[in-house]
Design brief:
The protein is α+β, with helices and mostly antiparallel strands. The protein has six helices and eleven strands. Strands 1, 2, 3, 4 and 11 form a five-stranded mixed β-sheet that branches. Strands 6-5-7 form a three-stranded antiparallel β-sheet. Strands 8-9-10 form a three-stranded antiparallel β-sheet.
């Protein structure tokens, strides 16, 4: 009897924990991101501040603030040199790689070597010229996506799964984790 009661309590505790926890999955695409949240016993696609299921993979910098997702998209025409795009294509790459040279030709934001030796975006942020690595800019976007998921679910995020392309090398995967 006692064992049965303890296992029932344990099962109830596990169900309660599952009900109260929030796990998210993030897919950062070249142009948009999607966040799915597991919480309250269901899987839902997270809607952003504008009730959209897709969030642009953009980070913009102005003299006053940092803009993420939809906010960065809304000002891209007037602030294209300070708007970082194609984040995952530059993750973990060195400034002299052919892929980076190709991105320099077509990208809007100037690319330079960041402090960590990888490629970074040269932007004007709060009146100061700065170089942010692709990993750091991606971290800014991931933080925003996590906050959006917490707001959507009403629960803190306990775990996160981040999807990466099959062609990512270990250096790219490590850059995503950093």
């Amino acid at each position: 009897r006692r064992v049965h009661g303890e296992s029932s309590a344990t099962a109830f505790s596990l169900l309660w924990l599952f009900w109260k926890m929030s796990v998210i999955g993030i897919d950062i695409g070249t142009s948009v991101c999607v966040v799915a949240a597991v919480g309250k016993g269901a899987v839902n696609i997270v809607r952003n501040d504008l009730s959209e299921r897709l969030t642009p993979s953009l980070v913009g910098f102005t003299d006053k603030e940092r803009l993420l997702g939809e906010a960065a998209l809304s000002q891209i025409k007037s602030n294209f040199k300070n708007t970082c795009s194609n984040l995952k294509l530059l993750l973990g790459r060195l400034p002299d790689e052919p892929e980076v040279e190709r991105e320099r030709q077509f990208g809007l934001t100037p690319l330079e070597a960041a402090e960590d030796g990888t490629v970074g975006y040269k932007v004007n942020y709060k009146g100061e010229e700065r170089v942010f690595s692709a990993s750091r800019v991606t971290a800014m976007l991931l933080t925003k996506l996590k906050e959006t998921a917490e707001k959507f679910n009403g629960l803190p995020v306990k775990d996160c799964v981040i999807a990466v392309p099959g062609w990512f090398a270990d250096t790219h995967r490590r850059a995503m984790l950093n």
